[in-house]
Every structure is written in structure tokens, then in C-alpha cells.
Amino acid sequence: MLQTLLPILIFAALAVGAVGAARRIRLWRRGQRSPMGWHRLVRMPKRYLNDLHHIVARDKAMAHTHVATAGGFVAAMALALVVHGFGWRNPILGGLLLLASLGMFVGALAVNRRRLDPPAKLSKGPWQRLSKSLLAYSVGMFLVSLPLVGVAPTTLGGGALALVLTLLVAWGLLEMIVGMGWGGPMKHAFAGSLHLAFHRRPERFDDQHGEPQSKIPHDVHRGSRSTALFPLDLAAPKLGVEKPSDFQWEQLLGFDACVQCGRCQAVCPAYAAGQPLNPKKLIQDMVVGMVGGSDARYAGSAYPGIEVGKHRGAPAEPIVPQLVEAETLWACTTCRACVEECPMMIEHVDAIVDMRRFVTLERGETPEKGAAAIDNLIATDNPGGLDNASRLDWAADLDIPRIQDRPEGVDVLLWLGDGAFDMRNQRTLRSLVKILRAGGVDFAVLGDEERDSGDVARRLGDEATFQRLAERNIATLSRYRFQRIVTADPHSFHVLGREYGAFGGHYTVRHHSTFIAELFDAGRLHVKAAEQRETVTYHDPCYLGRYNGEFAAPRQVLAALGVEFAEMERSGYRSRCCGGGGGAALSDVPGKARIPDMRMEDVRETGASTVAVACPQCTAMLEGVVEPRPQIKDLAEMVAEALIEPASDTASPTATADTREEIPA
Amino acid sequence: MSVRRVDPHAERIRRNRLHPRHHEFARPAWRWTSAAGVTRINPHAVGAIGPNGVKRIDRSGASVEASSAGGAQTSTEPARRPITLDAPSGYLMVVPELAEGRLSDHDRDLLGLARQLAADTDLAVTAVTFQREVAGLEDAGADRRLELADLVDADAYDPESRLAALVTVERELAPLHWIFADDFPGGGDLGRRLGARLAAGDSGDTRARPATRVWQVVDGQTRSRAGDRQDIQRDVPKILIALAECAEPISETRHEARPITLASAASTTAPAPEARSEAGSAGVVDRGRVAVDPQQIPLAQAPFILSAGRGIGDWDGYHHAARVLGASEGASRVAVDDGYMPRARQVGATGTFVTASCYIAVGISGAVQHLQGITKCQRVIAINSDPSCDMVKRADLAIIGDGDAVLAAVCERLGQPRAAQGEPREVQHDAA
Amino acid sequence: MTQPDNVTVGAAVKTVALVSSGRHPVSGRAGRAREDARAVEMGLSLSGGTLTLLHAGDADDAALPEYLGMYHGLSAGAGPGRLDLLPMAPDGDALPALAARLRQSDARLVLTGQRAECGEGSGMLPYLLAETLGWSIATGIAAIEQCDGDHVTVLQALPQGQRRRLEVALPCLLAVDGVAPAPRQSAFGPARRGITDSVATAAPAADPGWAAWQWQPARARPKRLKVVKSTNARDRFKAAAAKSAASGGQVLTDLAPDEAADRLLAYLRSEKVLAPVSDAEGADQ
Question: Which residue has the higher pLDDT, B316 or C202?
């Protein structure tokens, strides 16, 4: 009986699964089309085994579980197709099939153990069922294949046991094959593998890098380097994403690849602060929108403060606010922690910015302070609405050379950023100028010709204002000659270095931490040992670290200063955001805690008395934490304090960095 | 300035110490006013011999203050020179705002501007008022006063009948200039209406085009602000709608403010108010003031503020008192920093500069920044337990005592005591 | 502040907003004028997408798309914003062209700001228009409460946050005050879709007044000094050096809270901050 039933089951499952898969593909293709090459499919296996596995392997136990389960299943399925489907009852193949199902069984056991008391980040519902289905499939397949190697009587296929086994295998096939096509948990395998092949950011994969032969060990941060937002065509009939079908089809495919593992939820600063954002739920909502229906079947953690089951979506229905509340979009700090962590390499931030673009450009519903900042950017080229001519007021006594006076060109163009208007950040800039002078660097500034880089406008979704600022800045920069740009603002650093390229501005940009590290390497800076050794920790700015992969230079600078260094638990590519990125400080979505307070708690855990920062936004956010707290110093300030200035330079204005203006009470 | 008369005979005797009557004239005056009107002090005659035989000089001014309480008042403010004008060659109309029926500083500036324009001419500066018997027009510089209270209802906002009244004045007296205060919806509105009406009458006459936001008149030309970044300088037009501080108010002369009447107004009896409002219903009709929730008024504009500081222990009681009094809520920086009040309610240099006509500060000691924020408040009341704090010094009325208790008593007096919550409040008091 | 919601007239009363080119107070760049933007906001919440904008001036002014960008968040089916442009040189006289255009259209309610931010900025234009058209005009408008076919009920802003209710007969011009509800954000998409109709007018004459005037960059106004007219140096010195704080206020010490409350209330009543004697007070004593 089994011999006749099994092939029918297998082929029926495959056929039904294929129909489901075709329907799924039609759903994805409702998205915006972009030229695609089927040849990309060949890249998939290597991307799966190499790039994806490296991210999964950050959790070793889970990686092994997945290798056993998924590997076992793929092998068992392929062999079952041959052995049971086509009836090639080879004992060797049978033995392999047994091994594969055994491996899958071991993996499934581990999955089940994890599912006994699942961590909060995991979704339940069908995902709980999947663990049982895995067991059913592996056990059923193992037992029905036993006769192949002669361990059990071939007459097993009679009576009640055969029926039970058939049901087990049928359950397994239903979940694994039919569910894959029809939107069960296993669709992640199907959608995920296609997502890897057609990913919108191929630069995230090793196969797109020309130097696989270079002997650098696999760089876990490399995946993050494709971080520039995609430019928006401002002449398009609709700007940004209003409905699920406005996404690129690759994005819809990507959403469907989500395994609801909740790693994004675990690292999201807004979620931790109780703001109404959960990256996992957001991706699932996108899937709900793509398929159509209500979010009531979602079985994971909700957006904090927003009940599950009240929102609905459809491919041709607006997303905000029927499916996702605007607050959810504005809570995101664009820190990319979720993207960094996602084993399926889903691009959450792209999706959020796409939706923000519609809200800002078409609906004009940017949160109040964000809208004011955009208006100011339009009117005065800086978000504070200040007179752009006062950009250099803080440096009146420093006699900083202007690039306008240096037609022959300079080595370094110092990009000040909007921190130049902020009294706290002016201390950092003064320190940086002191360092550059001590290092004998030939530098100049743009002065009042410098405009905001457009970072805030772009993250708030106002691509029009961003492109206007970018074009003007690029036009300004094209008039002067310089070797490279150095800036103390990671946001400017990212935008100038990575995002202006799409508009024709290609520059060599260095963050000041990198540049100072280079000066140390070249022996051009000399520092004295600190008088009392204090413990220092370092907070990685998202736009320097995750966005641009610069983790080493700031630590190198701290090492050169000879301070006692204590690393925070969440540091490097897993650093927690300060809460100030992506315009989140402007949209100011209320939550239960403040993100900078949580980050300061991370700092306190190290016992450090000082936290070194390298970003004006981080400085501002962390200094907003009420005292007593560790003090906050920019790397440049720490270097400038320890600097031994060359004797010849004593005549230069050495206004100490801490001529602190009294802030009125 | 009074004219000093010198008695040459007495002067001679005073100089001649051998004169037999010298003592009668040469009083041991240590301080006198010289012929030029300047106070002179003889340092040798100052002071008194103390008990130890040492000469003591009191330079604190206390004794002078005390003695000059009555008489010196006139010496600090020299007597004004009375000016009369019997046969004016023309008129120069000033329409003061008269908010609350009184001359404001802005109104005095307008009259000062009119005097500046009328200098060296026989033009009569005429105050056109819609109220009766406005006080202080004499000292502000009005030669004439023209009360239009018969033609319009002074209490209602009825710009169209006011305009009609002014047009009557224009027809009858043909003033050389009209001066209004550039304030919406008062003189700024009325002046522009008159300008538009007159411009429509004789088109092409650019002199009829009012100069608005006038802030200075020099050399026969007005300087008026155009937009935010430009000034227009032009010949003085017929109508000037002027900003505050457009000219110095007068201080040395006193004018007669003689009432004049309109011939036509005397002949035609004023229509009854009802009939007027009927006639006015064609355009703009005043439907009265609207009750505004004090908490909804932006702090900078609120007329009555009850402000709380560190001295408040019972915050519910404070909010209740603000409701009962109908006051907008304000706060010191400390109260905001401690999280009792939202940041938008902070008064002071780092918060909001307020312009309340009455400002009650409860439990606020008065940091410099806070006092800077309330400089424009007309009446300041302090309730504080510390009699030596700066807020008490600033206040027009200071009550030394516990703020919570006083506010509770005020609510009780107004018949709206807070629902009895004795126990928790007592506990809070102890904690505070 | 107290903008009532749900006051809409749709297309029943044809509404037009006069808009001018604004100048940013810091940079001087062209953009929405603060009061005109509030007038447009008021018009949009009153009439929705049927509001028409009217501008006399340069077609390339950066402010115009910004006004058109406010046409969002309206009822479904509201089309793009419409702006009628009367091309005019900067020194032209906008009045005849605007008056002719308004006479042509069947507009009954015209909203505008009180004063332009560039050009003469005298705030005379609404008055001259009303005079030319024979319409009523009200100024300092903070909110529209109600609008039927014949009258519009508005709240007029008074100093210190107070409001006065006015009933204005249509057709009328309303000059909107800066305390009116803040304008909605100007969005790029609607701005791009907005339709500008250039309406040919008889070549507007140059403004007759301007020729005789001198234009200068705005000068800082002199700060008024407190001049003490006194004949003696000591008083002048004292007046200059005195602390203004010591105004000789009344200080009441050692009062029971009840007494203090009485004194406080008596003071507030004498200063007319509170109404003379409330009923409850009368019953109390």
C-alpha cells in the first residue's frame, strides 16, 4: 500500500506546492518591476552557504540546528523523490535517506527544545507547529524508509501502522512542501532563496566583491557596507511608497523571506524603549499588506502600545494608517541594527524610508518638529533656521583658512556639519582644529558656503530637499581643489562619501577618528600620558560603524592615548543607537523609556567614568541624560587634551577647548 | 521751567560779609539753585559735627529724600510750560488707541509725533476720541480734543461707523494729517480703512496713500518699514500709521486740549444705538467677546498668569487655584526641571517672555532670568515664605507666607474649595 | 487656538486666498508668507480643494509651489491645487488686476494675510480691494466659526490672547492674523502637481507712488533711552543708576492664610483683574 501511496503523496504535494508557489510569485510581481536577470539564480547557493550562513552563525547553536534540519530536509526530500517517488529502491540511497532523516530528526529535536519555552523574540502560532511538523516528517520518512535497507519487514506497509506512517509523512509533506508554496512558515525557504538571488543590494554579498582572493578573513561588517539609500526619481508620478504594491517586487520578495526569528526585535532601540515599533512586526505587516487581510494572525510581539488585530491591509490599499500607524515609521532611528542582524538580509530601513517618503512628499505629514527642520533647511540651508553666515562664528579667534583663499588647493577640506551651530559641538571642532594644526595638516573650510549635507531631510523622507542640498553642495565642492574631506560628523561622512555618488559627487571622505588614527600612525601627533588613568568606553555611532564599517580607528586612537579601555556589551556592529539618528530626535515619538538613557545604562555597566563619542548627535543625546552620569567626550577632545604641541606652534591661538560658555539657567 | 528772578540788592548784601544785614540774607545754605537752574552744593556747609567733634556728612541721600517728599517732587519734574493756541491755521488729527480708556505709551508717542509735525506752525494737534473725557490729553500734547462719542458706540467694535465718523471729520475740518497707531485690530485697521476710502475719493493722489509702520519722521520725510528688510523714505503723507516709539512723547509743555465739536454732529441728532447697529449690519457686526480658556492662550500673550515655583508642594491645589482664578499657568525653571510642569509653561529668559497685566508668582524666589521674563508685566504679586527674596522686592504686592495655604484659602474664599483631600495634602506639606 | 473643526462650506461659497511671496526672516529667501500661509490653511479647512489661490507677480516665484504644496489631506477626489497668476512686474500695481479678476470670478470670500513680507508691505491692499469692490473687510482673523451663504462668523484676535466674535456680511475680505492655526506642511508632490493658470491682464501700470519714494535697507530702530528731565545732576544720576526693582511694593507679613487670601483678592479686584464681587463671595460674608 505504501508503495502506491507514497509517490502519489509526494507528487501531489509537489504539484499543489508548485501551484501555491506560482501564486506567491504573482503576489511579488504586483510590486514595481525592475529589470531582472534570471541568471542571478545561479548565485543563490553560494550566497546561502557563505553570506547568509555567516550571519546565522552569530548564534552558533542555532546555526548548527539549522544546518542539521535544513540540510537533512533538503537531502531527505531529494532522496525520497528518487527512492519513493520514482521507485528506485536502491539500498544505498535508502541508507542515505535514513541518514538524512536522522540528521533532520536531531535538528528537529533541537528546534523543539527551543520551542518548549520560546524566547520572547520568537513568533509562536504556525512556527510552534513547524517544530512538530519537522519531527513528523523526519520520523515518518525514517520509518517508511527502514524497509529499504532490510531492517524492517517490507510488509510493513499493511494495517494501522502503515496508515499512521502515511499520515505522518503526509503531515510533513503538507507543511514542508505545500506550506512552502502556500504561505506556511516554510515559505521562508522558498522566498528566502529567491530573495538571496534577486537582492536589491547585491553589494552585500561576497560574490560582488572583486577581492575574494584577498586574505582578509570574512568580514562580518562587509554586509553592511551597501548602506546608501536609493535615490528617488522626483519626476515619478507617485513619490515614495503608499501601498504595498508600490514597493519594488524584490522588496516584497524580501519581506516574504522573513523567518520571524525576532533578532531585529531584540536589537531595535525603539522597541526596547517602548516606542510603537517592532521591525519584525513591520515586515509581517508588509506581508499582510501584500497578501491582503488583517494582522490578527500575527503570533509575535506587537508594536509596544498598539494592539494586534486592529489593522488591515491590501496590495492596493494605503499602508498608513490602515495597516501601519505613522508613529511606527517615525519611531525608527535608521540605526540599521535590524538590517545588520537579519539572517534573511531583509532591508527594513529602506522600507521605512520608502514609506516615510510618501508621507512627507505626498501627504505633508512629517511630525511637527521634523517639518519645521525641513522648512528651515529649505529657507536657510540648516535645520536650526540659523543664519548660514554664522557657521564660522565660533572660530572667529582661530583664524581658520578658507578654501576660497586657496585656489591652488589644499590637502584636507574640513567639513564642519551643522554641529558648527551648537555650542557643545563647537568645543569638539575647536579640538579638531587644534589637532589638525598640531599634525601640520594643510586644511581649509568652506565657511558660509557649506550647507547641511541633507542627511536629516533624506531620513525624514524629504528626498526633494535632500537632492537640492546635495546638488548645491556638489556644485560648491566642484569649484575648489582638495584631496579629501575630513569631518567630525558621521552623518555628513556617510552622506558625502556614500550617497552623493549617485548625484555625481565622488569624494574621498575621512571621519575624524580615521584621520586622527592616520596621523598617529604617521607619527605626526604626540600625546602625553594621562595624569590619572581613567576607564574609558567607546560608543560606536551607527553611521560610522554599521553604515561605514569603521570600528577600528576610534579604538586605535583610544589605545594611542593610553587609556584604560572597557568595551560595552553592545559595541561594534552590535552597538546600540543613541536615539538621535534618522530624525528620531525630531519626531520624538513617546515611549516608556528614552533611548539615550538605556545607552547610558550600557555605559554604566562597564564602570567607565568617561564615554568617548565620535558624533555630534550622539554627544547631544547622551549629554541629555540627567546627571550624575559618566562624562561624555568626543575623541577629538580627548586627543586635544593630551596633545603635546610642537614648540614652533606656540604662537598659534591655543584657546583651550574648555572655555565653556555659561549656559543660562 | 519757572523764571528765576534775581534781587540784585539781596545778592550784593549776600556777597558783602561786612554788610550789617548780611546775616539776614546769607543763610547757611549748603544747597541752593543757581541762576542757571543748576543745583549747587557748598561742601563746607554740608554735614553736622558729630558727638566726637568730627564732622559727619550723610551722603546716602536719606535725609534729602525724607525732606523732599513733598516739595522736591516738583523739582525733579520741572513745571510744564502752558501753551495755548487760539486761532489754529489747520488741524492735525491723532486717533489714540485708548485701550481700557486710558492713554497708553503708544498713544503718547503718537501725540509726540503730531507735535513734532506741528512744530513751528499754528496747526492744532487734535485728539480724536470715541470715548468721553479721556484724562491726560493736556500733558500728552493735544491742543484740541474732538469727542465722537455721539456718533459711535465706544464699547462696540464697529469699524464702519467709526470710519463714517472720521470721514465726516475729514470733510468738515480737512486736517493736514491723520495719525493712527499701527495696531491690529485698532488704529491700524481704522487708519487703513480711512486711507482706502480717501484714496478711492481722489484717485491718483499719492499723498493720500498712507505711510504704514512709520517709525521715524525726519526732515519732513517719514521712514516706514516695508516688509522685514526695507525702509521707505517719502514725503510726509496725509495719513501716518505709526509704530510705538515713533517719536518722543512731550514733556516740557502742557496744552489746553480744548474741546471742539463738529458742526454737522451738532445739527443732526445722533441716531439711537439700535438704529446704528441696524445700519452697520451691512458689513461687520460685533458679537461680543468670547470666553477663552486661559490654558489655551499662548503664555506670551496671556493676560493673567499664576506661576508656580519650588515653593509649591501641593500641585493639585495649585492647578485648582489656577482654574478658580481663571489664570493661565506658568512655572519657574526649577518646577519644569522637576517635571511638575511642561516645558512650554516656563517663564523667563530661557522660557517665555510674558506680557501679563497681572502676574502672581507663588513660591518663586526670582532668579535673574525669571525676572527678565516678567519685565513687561504691569502688576506682579509675590507669595513667598522668604521676605528677602528678589521676587518680593520686584513685586507690587508681596504676601509672606506659605503658598499652598494661601492658594487654598483663596479658592475657599471664592467659594470653590478643593474637594477635601486633607490627608494626602498634609503629607505633601510635610514632605515639602 | 480655538479653530472649530467641522466648519466647511465646500463649493457653496466660492473662496479665494490671495497669496504673496514671503521672505524668510533670517535668510530673506522667498517662501510662503507667514500670514498668507495661515490664510490658505484657513481656506483649505473651510472649502477644501475648491479653494483657489490668486497671486499677482512673478510666475517663477519660489513661494507659489509652496502654497500649492498645501493641497493635501483634503477629502478624497480633491484635485490638485489651482493658482491663478496675474503676471506682473515687481513694481506694478496689483490692485486693478486683482480687483478685475475678483470681479470676474464669482468669489464671495477672500482670505489673505494682513501684510506682505516684501515690497511695500503696507497692509493696505485688502482695504483698497474691499473699497474698490465695495465689499466688507475684517482684520486680525484668528478663526472662522461658521459660514453660511450670507454671513461668515469669525473670531478676531485681540491683544493678550483674547478673542472677539464678528459677523461679517459676504462678500468679504478677511485678513488673517499670525495667531491663526499654523499652516499645514507644504509637500513636494502636491506642489509639483499644482496647476498655475496664467491669466492675461491688461498690462498693469507701474505703481504711481513708488517713483517718489526712496527704498533703503531696513535700519535698526534706535533704542529709546530713558531720559530724565531734571534740573539737578543728582536726580539725573540717581535715575540713571537706580535699580528699577525697588518700586516700593507693599509687603504683607505675618498674615494668616485667610487674611492673606482676603488681601490678595481685594487687590485683584481693585486692579480689576477679577470681577468686583462674586455672588459666592457675597454669600460668604
Answer: B316
Instruction: Find the CB nearest C188 among A239, A371, A386.
Output: A239
The answer as to whether B309 is a domain residue is yes
Q: What is the DSSP letter of A19?
A: H
- Say how many domains are in chain B: 3
C-alpha A197/C-alpha A48 separation (Å) is 9
Looking at the complex, report in whole angstroms how far the Cα of residue A276 sits from the nearest Cα belonging to chain C.
Answer: 23
Q: Based on the domain organization, do B304 and B244 belong to the same domain?
A: no
Using CA atoms, how far apart are residues B150 and A631, in angstroms rounded to an integer? 73
Q: Which of C209, A45, A197, A218 is nearest to B203 (CA)?
A: C209
Residues of A with Cβ-Cβ distance to B350 under 8 angstroms:
664-665
- A234 contacts C188? CB cut-off 8 A: yes
Task: Please indicate whether, in this complex, the C-beta atoms of B367 and A665 are within 8 angstroms of each other.
Answer: yes
B370 touches chain A (CB under 8 A): no
A12 contact partners, CB below 8 Å, separation of at least 6: none
pLDDT of A658 higher than 60: no
Instruction: Report the relative pairing of strands B81-83 and B253-255 from DSSP bridges.
Output: parallel
Count Cα neighbours of A510 within 13 Å in the Cβ-side half-sphere. 19
Nearest CA in chain B to A663: B350
One domain, residues B207 and B271: yes
A2-197: which CATH number, 1.10.3470, 1.20.950, 1.20.1070, 1.10.357?
A: 1.20.950
Q: What are the chain B neighbours of C228 within 8 Å (beta carbons)?
A: 76
Number of Cβ pairs closer than 8 Å across A and C?
Answer: 57
Which tens digit of pLDDT belongs to each residue from B210-268? Answer: 899 999 998 888 999 887 788 999 889 999 999 988 998 988 899 988 999 887 655 45
**What is the rounded average pLDDT of the residues B67-91?**
66
CATH code for the domain defined by C15-205:
3.40.50.620
CB A50 within 8 A of CB A56: no
Same-domain status, B264 and B117:
yes
pLDDT tens digits, C204-216:
676 666 777 888 8
Residue with cell 539776614: B24
Q: Return d(Cα C61, Cα C68) in angstroms, integer.
A: 12
C-alpha cell read off for C141: 482673523
Q: Which residue on chain A is closest to B332 by alpha carbon?
A: A665
Distance CA(A516)–CA(A557), nearest Å, equals 7
> Chain A: nearest CA to C72, how far in angstroms?
6
Q: How many CB atoms lie within 10 A of CB B342?
A: 10
What's the sign of the alpha-carbon dihedral B130, B135, B141, B145?
A: positive
Within-domain flag for B412: yes
SS3 at position C16: strand
Q: Which residues of chain C have pLDDT under 50?
A: 1-4, 245-246, 278-285
The answer to whether residue B149 is domain-embedded is yes
Range of the domain at B33: 1-46
CATH class of A237-363: mainly alpha
Indicate the pTM of the whole model. Answer: 0.83
- What is the C-alpha radius of gyration for chain C, rounded to an integer number of angstroms? 25
**Which residues are within 8 A (CB) of C68 and not within 5 positions of it... i.e. 6 or more apart?**
C53, C80, C81, C83, C190, C191, C193, C194, C195, C196
Bridge partners of residue B319, in order along the sequence:
none
Which residue is associated with the grid cell 499677482? Answer: C56
Determine, yes or no, domain membership for B69: no
C-alpha to C-alpha distance for B405 and B418, rounded to whole angstroms:
12
Tell me which residue has cell 529649505: A378
**Could you tell me the three cell numbers for C181?**
492655526
Grid cell digits, residue C185: 506642511
* Chosen CATH of A386-519 out of 2.60.40, 3.40.50, 3.30.1560, 2.10.109: 3.40.50
pLDDT above 80 (res A506): yes
Per the structure block, which three cell numbers stand in for B381? 504679586
Interchain pair C153, B287: CB under 8 A = yes
Domain extents for chain C? 15-205, 248-285
